[in-house]
Write a structure and sequence with these properties.
Blueprint: H1 7-13, E1 25-31, E2 34-39, H2 40-43, E3 50-54, H3 59-68, H4 70-78, H5 81-84, H6 86-95, H7 105-108, H8 116-141, H9 152-161, H10 170-193
Antiparallel strand pairs: 1-2, 2-3
Helix pairs in contact: 3-4, 4-8
């Protein structure tokens, strides 16, 4: 789905959130404050996934990134917003003659010097996010009961393997699975909108022989 004429130039001139600046999501359609953006991470894997949201409410985009692309989400959350906005500011200058052209945006952004403790914290956050996603996949794909995460033996097993990770509670697990369900349902609806026919099979009606 190609963007409407003028959408790219118009969006670059506005105060677009960093997550929609073209590196993670590319805005394809814009209607006032509402936007439809294509996930560039999915696109790199030959999957055309469109997510709907708003300029001032990017939770749908962040949820998609967090659940399906945890590594990219980690990089996004740990990178200073200014550096994510460099590309947007540069492109905006190309279309705005009144914008300063003799300012080197790259040189104006100072590199942040991370201390060892900060690096360690970032590493632990990434490890926890990866563990959480693997735990959700295990519960859902193996059809395990949600109370598995409350089992002391299961918690002990996880902590013995890595004492730095924490096992989420049943309540949080249920909420995360529900969020994943909403995200996947939205993606399926988007796929169904782009096909003319859908073939299904009522397996439960087939008599056993």
């Amino acid at each position: 789905m190609d963007p409407e004429p003028g959408i790219s130039n118009e969006c670059e001139k506005e105060n677009i959130p960093a997550i929609l600046n073209g590196e993670l999501f590319v805005i394809k359609n814009k209607d006032g404050n509402n936007v439809t953006a294509q996930c560039e991470v999915c696109n790199s894997k030959h999957k055309k996934i469109m997510i709907k949201g708003a300029i001032n409410a990017t939770s749908n985009f962040r949820t998609h990134l967090k659940r399906l692309h945890p590594i990219e989400f980690k990089k996004f959350t740990e990178t200073p917003i200014r550096s994510y906005n460099r590309k947007k500011r540069k492109v905006a200058n190309e279309y705005d003659e009144s914008a300063p052209t003799n300012i080197d945006v790259e040189s104006s952004v100072k590199q942040k010097q991370l201390k060892f403790s900060e690096v360690n914290i970032a590493s632990n956050k990434h490890k926890q996010a990866l563990f959480d996603q693997n735990l959700i996949n295990y519960i859902v794909k193996s059809m395990k009961p949600l109370h598995t995460v409350d089992d002391l033996n299961f918690i002990g097993l996880c902590r013995d393997l890595d004492s730095s990770v924490r096992v989420m509670s049943r309540r949080i697990l249920s909420r995360n699975i529900e969020e994943d369900c909403i995200s996947v349902t939205g993606q399926l609806l988007q796929v169904f909108q782009n096909v003319q026919f859908i073939c299904t099979t009522a397996v439960y009606l087939v008599h056993k022989t």
